[in-house]
Structures are given as C-alpha cells and as structure tokens.
Amino acid sequence: MARQIGEKLTAAWGQPVVVENKPGANTILATDSVAKSAADGHTILMTTDATFSINPHLYAKLPFDTQRDFIPVTMLVLLQQLLVAHPSFSANTLEELIKLAKAKPGSINYASYGSGSQPHLSGEMLKNKAGIDLVHVPYKGISLAVPAVMAGEVQLTFAGIATSMPQLKAGRIKAIAIGGTQRSALLPQVPTFSELGYPEVETHAWFGFFLPAGSPKEAVSKIHLDVTRVLQDPDFRQKQLIEKGYEVVGSSPDEFAAYIRKDSESRGRAVKISGAKAE
Predict the structure, then answer these.
(1) Is 116 left (phi over 0), alpha (psi -120 to 50) or beta?
(2) Per-residue pLDDT tens digits for 56-88
(3) Which of 27, 35, 83, 261 is most buried, taking the most CB atoms under 10 A from its CB?
(4) Cβ atoms within 10 Å of 78's Cβ, excluding its own
C-alpha cells in the first residue's frame, strides 16, 4: 500500500517518494527512526494501530512518546478481521463455538502472531466477554497463523479479509464472525461480533500516516490533502483497497488524533485483560 500511494504522490509532487521498510521490534525500530528524523515534512511514518494503540500498553518503556513525538496526518484505511476456523471444526456459528467451549473448557485453541497482537487481544476479549476458556497458541509471524488453521494445527484464528479470501473461496477455512459495526460487502453472509452481542470484541487494524512532531503545518496540510486525493481516486480506491477488504477512511489530522485516543483506551483494556507484556 505504501508503494502504491507513493507512486501516486511521486507523480503529484514531481519528486521521488522512496519507501524504506524498517521491520523489527513490533514496529518500534521504524517508529523510533522517524521520531528522531528531521521535522521538515520529508519523512513520513506509515504504520499500524499496533504502534499507537497497543505498544504503549504492552511495553514498560518505549524510546519515543507516541503522543508527544508525532503528528497524526490521516488514517488511510481500516481493516476488520475475521474469526476463521478449520472446515472440520464442529461449530459453524459463534453461538455454537461458545456452547462447545463451555461444554469442553480448554479444548479449543486459537492462533495469533504473538503476545499482544491483534488476534491475541481479540481472542482474550472474546474469552472474557463470553466466559469461555480458549487456549492461545502464539506463532512467530502473521503469515503462519492462517496456514496453521488450514493444516489443522489449531482450530481458530483472527485474520484480515485480504489474506483470508483465497482460502475461504477454496474451502480451506470457514468464517464465523467479523469485527466492526456492519457486515463486509465482500462477505455479507458473515455476521459481526457486534450484532451477535459482543461489541467489545474488536478485531480491527488500521494504517495511517504520521509526521515527526514540529513538522510545518503546511507540510501536514499538503500531505493530508494529496494523500486523501489518492484515496478518493475511483480506480485506485476500488481496485487497490475496497476489493481487498479495506474500508477507505482518509480522516483529517484532528479526526485521526481523536480516533487514536479512543482506540488506545479500548486496546489498553484488552491488553490488561489479556495479561500480555513485552520486554
């Protein structure tokens, strides 16, 4: 997504937009790099909700302050995750899953990509609100959880529509519920946790743009304006985002900042319930 948006911005600005991947430490390395970069509007951080909504509650200490050291520019997209299961799993609905879990506590397991990850927090909130016992099985990467369900190593996991659709269509996994307040147009038959009575089970992930604190207001405004123009381009919006399961947002800096505050509070509660900690 960063490269696709970067190509559009390169054309609009008449200068190259270089995407530099800096993986590691659950987004902390890249985020710290941007926090310490020049506040001249030429270095942008694209990251996920883990950085601003989860990590401050998960880590005892971070090398930056998410509220003090960054300016939110815009939320690009929101992505709701599905609760998916192996096709042989006897429960086909959330009600059946909860009934089975209560009848056989500790017999159902779910995969995540690590302690404090979105799937882990979603699973623990479901356990808490439904009063059931599911066994958490953390894997070492986001790309391993769905294959673990497909292989029958675990029965459940939470995964984004984009990564799940090919496997759903092939019948290698099945969908039980999805996060958010409304059903996905791509999977209209799959009910939301909210409509099933569990609105606290938040499964979402989001992607957004940030600048280092102290960046010129003109830079914030220009980047926001030009990025939202990209998001509003009908062809780009449909083919690169909506068809892949993303909800296009393009919020203002103030709207994004307000959303992060609320999101951080709810994710903080989930981290506390999960007992997750990171060193």
Answers:
(1) left
(2) 999 999 999 999 999 999 999 999 999 999 999
(3) 83
(4) 19
- Domains detected in the chain: 2-79+204-274 (3.40.190.150), 81-178 (3.40.190.10)
Cα(244)–Cα(234) distance, integer angstroms: 14
Distance in angstroms (rounded) separating the CA atoms of residues 102 and 107:
10
Q: Which helix (H) or strand (E) holds 29?
A: helix 28-35
pTM of the full structure: 0.92
Which ranges in 52-207 belong to alpha helices (H)? 55-58, 94-103, 118-130, 142-150, 161-169
Q: CA 24 to CA 176: how far, in whole Å?
A: 32
175 sits in which H/E element? strand 174-178
Q: Count of CB atoms within 10 A of residue 261's CB?
A: 12
